[in-house]
């Protein structure tokens, strides 16, 4: 491995410069005017993978944005690792809050600033450069077989990823899966993410009068749909944030005593944690710490709502309608279907007279995921991290959702390794997104060690 | 009076045709592009009043839309009646719902359809034509002195009416005031409105995190401002609609037993009443009928609210902020100031940890009004109605607000006569506004009789 590690050290600056080239392509998947940029981003990556001498490189079109597939299949009788990442990025608004333009990829004090630096181009690049380090040194080939699937629609909810997995099931077959799209627990703390929450999004439409009516003529005599919506939303929680929807917690599997103990031992400071949101204080279900709340407990949050007249000036009406968009984060073994059924029943029971409520079918649903951490792959990954960082690995969960992980884990039948190199305060969906360049460097070494250690497996 | 009444009968069709001319001027005060139309509408009325031989006619400019003033001061030693109305009209959206164009003033089955037909051009015209009937017959002059104030900003909240009243206090001085801008209790039922609710509008701004944050990363660990706003709004009422804000009802003067009895005896059918709103059922405070609720009880309604992402697609965020626009309808002796103070205290007590709430100063405030119905002016008006309609007068209240009434009543020191000729289902702020032409006709006679009866007063 010496030559591989030396190559990584020797080409540190070039790797950064090349990543900058890629980051400068504004591959925003949510905005139609950037469709050609997402395409250019896919071609840019495909070109680089071809230049490395991949066995196969393909750009897979979808109904919207293309994914890149590549394979390096030179390690006969060795296991195959499928690496997942994405090359599309979040929108950049509000532009005025960026200290340097989001697509200039400016280096400053050991960080690379720009949209997509950490989410997820930098993390995909960690693998690309680890591969290069094996292929362009005396080793000449990888210790395992590698496949990369780098999609172009992650930031818009991966609408065609299921199709791609089905269509290319054979091409994508693998023994292990590694996802590099998560964050480390803290600075310099190698981390494996072993749990993700699922999600279900839905909409409530509350109807009252047939049209906006005069609040003088009718106020006090008919139900106001905005007040009714507020009452329904309030009925969802007690004042400490515990969810009151009957059946909501029925299927929740609490974390094991061992995991709770691990969580308790992790360095955590609520005040530090709060800084990333700017919220004034923590708030949540009694009997749980902040980490337990966001990793192991389900939620029911309003993502948005609207009713009547809310712009300048006043309009004394009882609005015709009120809508709310809501989403639940789910934990094992909750499913979008059962939670939707419980919510529907609860909403019906809490609808006041004179009001009708429609609850939409689940708009986005994804199952929660918790890895079986007794699987030997976790020890392999820990050894790789030990060698790259010289440190013990932290097992953590994340409160967010990566729908791909549950799906691919079902297909592969082995836990998915979530080896992320983000930082908790890296602004991944906000202005001034950045990638820590030390992390980028040690990340490449970690990936190299992961391949090496996996090559020693049966 | 025979010649006056005969003149009104003989010129019925011409009066309608002349009203149509005025209605065809689209004097929408809320829309800047109609500013010249509001001006044209004022000049049109002023021209007609001059042609009648008024003592004085003036168009009073304001910072936005002009008012028309006219006086007929030929009845020496007789009382002076100030008539208030407005010549501006509501916007017409949604245009597609009109069965005939809003400014064509089409006659159909005894109704005149068009924006402003009943609110308020038709009602102003009732007085103009009653005046004409005295001046163009053998009577030759009015039995009292008359002043008209017809403003051009009623539909935008009368922002300059206070200024006009102060600037022209002397010119406007009068013994009695008559407002014709309300509705009759029912078809063919002459009605005097003896009570109006007041109003206070304000806004709640609820702040949580400094920016919209990821509902996976933070959900369950920090308070969601939209959920917090819903909880605050819900804390305002019990589930039957009674307001729970401490102090809210402290100053409420209940209607007298006599008024409650009068209200109980009025013909009223909740199902008929509901039709005008399209709401599915009545809803409100226990222990009160619908009429009592909308006439004698205060309210606290959401007029609008907004938070986070509420347009197409989903965005799994905890919103940074949530706002609501609210208004209370007030009854005697509530005041905007004390109600605002009670609400502010209540909101502060119901703000969850990690959330800050700003409550705006009152954006619009108007005092409630209830007339002293023992004043002899009510008997005078009843006699006029008896002669015009051959029917007993109904004393009613309205749930809406006319800020002018409280103000002018304080100035004049006598109860304001609200003699309205609208119908409860006349669509006054909605598509297909109409004026009943029989009502218009009998209205002119009622106004003539009112002047005549007032002329007999000391």
What does this entry show, briefly?
Two copies of one chain form a homodimer. By secondary structure, chain A is an alpha+beta fold.
For this entry, give a set of tags.
homodimer, 458 residues, alpha+beta, Aminopeptidase, Alpha-Beta Plaits, 2 domains, 9-stranded mixed β-sheet, 5-stranded antiparallel β-sheet, 14 helices, 19 strands, globular
What does this structure look like?
Two copies of one chain form a homodimer. By secondary structure, chain A is an alpha+beta fold. Chain A folds into two domains: 2-196 and 368-455, Aminopeptidase (3-Layer(aba) Sandwich), CATH 3.40.630.10; 198-262 and 291-366, Alpha-Beta Plaits (2-Layer Sandwich). Chain A is 34% helix and 20% strand. The first copy, chain A, contains 14 helices and 19 strands. In chain A, strands 1, 2, 3, 6, 7, 8, 16, 17 and 18 form a nine-stranded mixed sheet that branches. In chain A, strands 9, 11, 13, 14 and 15 form a five-stranded antiparallel sheet that branches. In chain A, strands 4-5-19 form a three-stranded antiparallel sheet. In chain A, strand 1 (56-60) and strand 2 (67-72) form a beta hairpin. In chain A, helix 1 runs antiparallel to helix 14. The mean pLDDT of chain A is 94. Chains A and B meet through strand 10, helix 6, helix 7, helix 10 and strand 11 of A and strand 10, helix 7, helix 8, helix 11 and strand 11 of B.
